[in-house]
Specification:
By secondary structure, the protein is mainly beta. Helix content is 11%, strand content 35%. Strand 1 and strand 2 form a beta hairpin.
Length: 120
C-alpha cells in the first residue's frame, strides 16, 4: 500500500473473497429470499399439503453453483408462492444420485446433500 512517498506492507485478507465466484455468497437455503417465507407449493395444478411444504422449506443445499451446462432440463416443475403472494418457478431434478433444485428466474442451482429425497 502506498501513501504519499511511503510504502507499507499490509496483510491481505480480502483478495480471496474478491476472487470467489458469486455463487459462494448465495444462501444455501434455496427459499431464503422468498418474502415472508414459503406460503404454498403447486405441482401440476395440485396444491401440496402443509407437511410436504414444511419438509421442502427445511432443505439446505450442500453447495450453490451456476447452472451447469449438463443440468437436467426435465424434472418436477413447482410453483412456489411466498407470503407476499408472489409466485416463483423451480425445477426439482435428479443429477446422478443427488437432488438438484433450479430456479426459473436465477441462473443458480442448489445441490442438495446425498440422501435428500424428493417429497412424495
Amino acid at each position: 500500500m502506498r501513501i504519499g512517498g511511503q510504502v507499507a506492507l499490509v496483510t491481505d485478507r480480502i483478495s480471496v473473497t474478491l476472487l470467489a465466484p458469486p455463487e459462494r455468497f448465495v444462501d444455501r437455503n434455496p427459499f431464503a429470499d422468498l418474502r415472508d417465507g414459503l406460503a404454498g407449493v403447486v405441482e401440476g395444478g395440485t396444491p401440496w399439503p402443509a407437511a410436504r411444504i414444511a419438509a421442502l422449506a427445511a432443505w439446505r443445499a450442500e453447495s450453490v453453483e451456476a447452472v451447469p451446462a449438463d443440468a437436467p432440463r426435465a424434472g418436477r416443475a413447482l410453483r412456489l408462492r411466498d407470503g407476499a403472494g408472489r409466485e416463483h418457478g423451480f425445477l426439482l431434478a435428479m443429477r446422478e444420485d443427488r437432488v438438484l433444485l433450479l430456479r426459473d428466474d436465477r441462473p443458480l442451482a442448489w445441490l442438495l446433500p446425498a440422501g435428500t429425497t424428493l417429497p412424495d
